[in-house]
Write a structure and sequence with these properties.
This protein is an alpha/beta fold and 287 residues long. It has helices spanning 35-46, 87-94, 104-115, 176-180, 182-189, 201-221, 238-250, 257-260, 263-266, 276-283; strands spanning 3-8, 12-18, 24-31, 53-58, 98-103, 124-129, 133-139, 142-143, 225-229, 267-268. The protein binds adenosine-5'-diphosphate and zinc ion. The site of zinc ion has 7 residues, from helix 4.
Amino acid sequence: MLIGGIEAGGTKFVCGIGNEKGEILDRISFPTETPEITLKKVVEYFKDKNIETLGIGSFGPVDINPKSENYGSIRKTPKLTWTNFNILEYLKKHFSISMVIDTDVNGAALGESIWGAAKNLDNCIYLTVGTGIGGGILISGKLVHGMLHPEMGHIIIKRHPNDKYEGKCPFHKDCLEGLASGPAIEERWKTKGDKLPLDHEAWNLEAFYIAQALVNYILILSPEKIILGGGVMKQKQLFPKIRKYVKEMLNEYIQADDVLKNIDEYIVSPKLGDNAGLLGAMALTLK
Ligand code: ADP
Ligand code: ZN
């Protein structure tokens, strides 16, 4: 079966075709402009590709409730031309094939559970730490949707006593995203994350915040694997720091070998690498 996938990001769109084995046969990428300009390119790309089904992993917030009249619409977003724009409706006008839309991170969680780091596991979470922080949740083999969709980046965490930075979130200031997103790192330290030295205190602080979030997710969701992606997580030195903090904060309360003995295999990078978003979008059609 030929599957189409769209990784609809706030910065760029990636479109591609592939199959159930997780093989990508072709892909293209272009910057995100207005919906009309961007989606015209999407339609142009898929026009002669003969795909049988299409999965869309979208930036959020997006209405992913198939029963809702706004199913497939982007909700209120700083990218104003996209607010209330219905991606799914637009594409359905051009292609009469089955389509699924979900969040990009739900797609990534599912893709990793089919082909990647959480292969053969029914419970995992995927967290991206980039321009924003967001997460996808797979529980008992199903993606968590609920009222809208999870917003794992906006949880409330404890501030580090030495951290005087007010926070970047326009809604909550010092929620997780407000304190630990890429732009928060840049504003706090007046340097982009990729320019900070490996031994800079920024990374300890970053790990302290991400670890708190993971502890909350572990306690509430009991995932079998935690996958951390996004631009900021390219700082590989964060992983051992995060794992150490998670262990300390849980303080042996969770009596599971995944945490106590094998945490290096429990909190991991995405295995699908740069294809995680596109494969995630394709994976949505397989559920
Ligand atoms: P997006 O979230 O927009 O889809 P990314 O996941 O690449 O894209 O996240 C971009 C953010 O991550 C920016 O704030 C950028 O400064 C930060 N970032 C990207 N690469 C690195 C890196 N190697 N180290 C630290 N921060 C990075
Ligand atoms: Zn927030």
